[in-house]
């Protein structure tokens, strides 16, 4: 906010403190950089307190060329008169980040294709966040909020790219369901500031297509145990085996 106290500069003068020889006044000689305003700060001439003198919109870290300002501060004795002696020091002010930008998906819908019976990462979900990448205000946390009743899917954050890595952790069965739709939300590690909220762009849909794989026939039961008396005639039926093919949506012939 306008008028926020940033820091205090303190100078000392070895002269008699009861005289004007040690009566100090403070002044800002130079501000670097000079954008977005050449007068971002003011210093109380008597106390040495540096305060902000621009509206909050000009102290927005995301729109600044650099979040660091250097002020050359002058302290002058004799109450600041031209005849006074001076000393200077540099005040370095860093504009820190607040979590004032929620993460937003780059697309409303993502597509993925996976073969049945396979596990691993199937798609990376991309988000954008204007906050400082070195902070929890930028780092994303993903949650599957719908479409995962069997817990077949998990999502984790890539710490380098901030992408959401969606994985199959329980193999999918094409014959049970060839399509899955997941609803994913993304939030930051740190809470948003009170007047900012997560919007519709912080959720996205993932459409997953399961591809059929030619699976081998399965015997029932397995193993099979048969007991027969010795000396049975040639050509006797020992056992009728039973196998079925999991690919029920395709015409299969079993031999």
Automatic annotation (TrEMBL):
CDD domains: Cadherin_repeat (cd11304). It is found in: Cell membrane. It comes from the Eukaryota. SUPFAM superfamilies: Cadherin-like (SSF49313). InterPro entries: Cadherin (IPR039808), Cadherin-like_dom (IPR002126), Cadherin-like_sf (IPR015919), Cadherin_CS (IPR020894). Its main location: membrane. GO terms for molecular function: beta-catenin binding; cadherin binding; calcium ion binding. Pfam families: Cadherin (PF00028). Transmembrane segments: none annotated. One of its GO terms (biological process) is cell-cell junction assembly. One of its GO terms (cellular component) is adherens junction. Residues 3-105, 106-219 form the Cadherin domain. Keywords: Calcium, Cell adhesion, Cell membrane, Cleavage on pair of basic residues, Glycoprotein, Membrane, Metal-binding, Repeat. PANTHER family: CADHERIN-13 (PTHR24027:SF80), CADHERIN-23 (PTHR24027). This is Cadherin-13.
């Amino acid at each position: 906010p306008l008028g926020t106290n940033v820091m205090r500069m303190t100078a000392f003068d070895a002269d008699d403190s009861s005289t004007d020889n040690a009566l100090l006044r403070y002044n800002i000689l130079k501000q670097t950089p000079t954008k977005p305003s050449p007068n971002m700060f003011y210093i109380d001439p008597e106390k040495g307190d540096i305060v902000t003198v621009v509206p909050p919109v000009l102290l927005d870290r995301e729109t600044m060329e650099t979040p660091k300002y250097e002020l050359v501060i002058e302290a002058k004795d004799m109450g600041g008169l031209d005849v006074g002696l001076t000393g200077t020091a540099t005040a370095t002010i860093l504009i820190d980040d607040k979590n004032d930008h929620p993460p937003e998906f780059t697309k409303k819908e993502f597509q993925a294709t996976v073969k049945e019976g396979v596990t691993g990462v199937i798609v990376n979900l991309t988000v954008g966040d204007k906050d400082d990448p070195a902070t929890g205000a930028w780092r994303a946390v993903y949650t599957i909020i719908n479409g995962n009743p069997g817990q077949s899917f998990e999502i984790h954050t890539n710490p380098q790219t901030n992408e959401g890595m969606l994985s199959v952790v329980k193999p999918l069965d094409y014959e049970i369901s060839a399509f899955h739709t997941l609803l994913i939300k993304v939030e930051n590690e740190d809470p948003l500031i009170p007047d900012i909220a997560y919007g519709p762009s912080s959720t996205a849909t993932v459409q997953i297509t399961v591809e059929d794989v030619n699976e081998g026939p399965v015997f029932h039961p397995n193993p099979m145990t048969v007991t027969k008396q010795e000396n049975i005639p040639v050509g006797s039926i020992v056992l009728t085996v039973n196998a079925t093919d999991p690919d029920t949506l395709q015409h299969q012939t079993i031999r």
